[in-house]
Write the structure tokens for this entry.
Amino acid sequence: MQRSFIVLLCLGFVRATLQNYTVDDTSPDIQYGGEKFQCDANSCPPGVIDGQFNNSATLTTGSITFSFTGTAIYASLDLVGTCSITVDGDEIPSLTVTVAQAIAGVRGNISRSDLANGLHTLVIDPTTNSTVIGFDHLVYTASLPNKKSHVGAIVGGVVGGVVLTIGALFLALFARRRKLIIRRNQRKNAVLRGISSTRHDYKAGEEDATELPT
Ligand SMILES: *[C@@H]1O[C@H](CO)[C@@H](O)[C@H](O)[C@H]1NC(C)=O
Ligand SMILES: *[C@@H]1O[C@H](CO)[C@@H](O)[C@H](O)[C@H]1NC(C)=O
Ligand SMILES: *[C@@H]1O[C@H](CO)[C@@H](O)[C@H](O)[C@H]1NC(C)=O
Ligand SMILES: *[C@@H]1O[C@H](CO)[C@@H](O)[C@H](O)[C@H]1NC(C)=O
């Protein structure tokens, strides 16, 4: 009883952990809306090679769409031109990088955090014909339930208080049921003893009194 209560207490404090995942430009989860050219360390223009993830980058003049389940999204683009950026259709500041800036190493940074945990879609959309995007990878943050116990995984998203309330209710019902079973058994014993020996009726009553739970 006490042990199960401690387990329930622990479940009440299960926290979702945040984890970053890096998605490569070659991932099938990335949708390209236009012409694209995949390059590697040898074929990428200088600059796009810097900090390359998984030895590839994709150059494109079309849109980039990515759906993810989580709470945040980050990307740093090599860019010449202007892109509109939306998450779930909401515009976040568009990016503009001139040729001179690109040569100086300026990148277009995308950062959107504090999203409600769930499915979101990022769209990077060039707004001029001359825009070219060099896309290497992006990072999204997923909210994972604690994997230490199966029950923990199920209730991971549940607010601790709710779990504790359910736990307390369960314990109360369990205790009540036990008490009822003990009482019923005692009554049954008393009746049986009464049947087997009518002379010791008063004694059975005495025993019952000492065994009664508080
Ligand atoms: C995920 O990556 C972003 C950008 O690098 C960083 O700001 C954030 O703290 C990271 N989150 C986690 C949970 O590692
Ligand atoms: C790295 O790129 C290869 C194809 O070039 C792909 O099969 C693999 O899944 C990529 N790895 C990651 C971690 O994205
Ligand atoms: C973009 O992020 C990089 C680090 O990834 C940083 O060095 C750079 O200053 C940022 N650029 C802008 C315009 O904020
Ligand atoms: C983009 O180029 C096409 C022709 O290739 C032209 O018809 C269109 O107006 C241009 N769009 C913009 C926004 O400049």
Residues 128-129 surround 2-acetamido-2-deoxy-beta-D-glucopyranose (ligand 4) (CB under 6 Å).
